Amino acid sequence: MSQQTKKGHFPWKHIIGFLISIALTLVAFATALWTDWSSSTIFIIILIFAVIQAALQLVMFMHMTEGEDGGLISGNTLFGFFIAVVIIVGTYWLMTSGHMHMSM
Amino acid sequence: MAHDHNVNPNAPLEYQSETGRLNITGFWTFLGAEIALFSTLFASYFALQARVGDGPTSNEMFEAGLVMIMTMLLLTSSFTCGIAIHEMRANNKKGVIIWMIITLILGAGFIGYELYEFVHYVHEGVTLSTSAHWSMFFILLGTHGLHVSIGIGWIILLLIQLARRGLTPKTASKVFISSLYWHFLDVVWIFIFTCVYLMGMVN
Predict the structure, then answer these.
(1) Which residues on chain B are in Cβ contact (under 8 Å) with A74?
(2) Given this model, what pLDDT does residue B138 score?
(3) If I label B125, which of B13, B18, B22, B150 is the partner at 20 to 30 A Cα–Cα?
(4) Which of B38, B80, B88, B89 to mutate to test the interface with A (most CBs of A within 10 A)?
């Protein structure tokens, strides 16, 4: 395990992850509040920033990919996110596209 | 450690006992369920986002400065929590406790601002029953805030145990698991910040 050999070393990985997270947060903030692009363009851009930042947390801070069960854990978490996307997109589509009116 | 077989002395402390390793993997499964839980709340929020009724819109209520303070507090606490685990892997018990206490203070600051925000909204007449939009806002944010509060209590208890028993494969895996929980709450917050606050201030 490579972590053991890094004993006492400066936590570069965490600091780089933290700085990138702050940068992504500020850029997303600026994109949302200080541009006059359409709201759907802004949403896609800042959602990409959010996904990058979430991946950064999972891999750099939560050590998702390391250890004997790293593959299992990563697969499980990605499946969790897949389920989340299906629930969110599916619900939004169903509730806003007019299907509700058909049965009433 | 009579129950623990397959001990790997080269792995970080939290992975050294089989129980610790399996607990960590098991906790990731729990986090998968948490992703599903929050996805249902996000789904409801998106579906009901436009249903503001007679109440105000997000744009009229959100304050950019407050949102940034809360985001930075939680993001920094996630970073200090990561440093605590870094110290744990250097076998520095004191370092773990100090960085975890900093994490908890930042987390408590986050909760303080969230409570301030909620109380402020209620004073302005925006409550759980104002509109479908605000119902989902309070439920989504409240569920996240409740998780952070539970995390603070849990980590305080773990730190007391750590101070008493020292860094062992057992306590190390517990501290590592609590760090996973804490980082996960920041991951959820990234999406609340993006989808609820930033998009709320765009519209």
Answers:
(1) none
(2) 97
(3) B150
(4) B89
- Interval B98-108: pLDDT, tens: 999 999 999 99
* Pair of tokens at residue B17: 């006992």
pLDDT digits (tens, 9 = 90+) for B25-63: 999 999 999 999 999 999 999 999 989 888 899 989 999
CATH class of this structure's domain B58-202: mainly alpha
CB pairs under 8 A between A and B: 152
Query: Is A88 in Cβ contact with B39 (below 8 Å)?
Result: yes
* Domain residue extents for chain B: 58-202
d(Cα A89, Cα A99) in Å, to the nearest integer? 15
Q: In whole angstroms, give the CA distance from residue A93 to residue B43.
A: 10
pTM of the complete model: 0.91
* Residues in chain B closer than 8 A to A87 (CB atoms): 36, 39-40, 43
In contact, A63 and A17? CB cutoff 8 Å: no
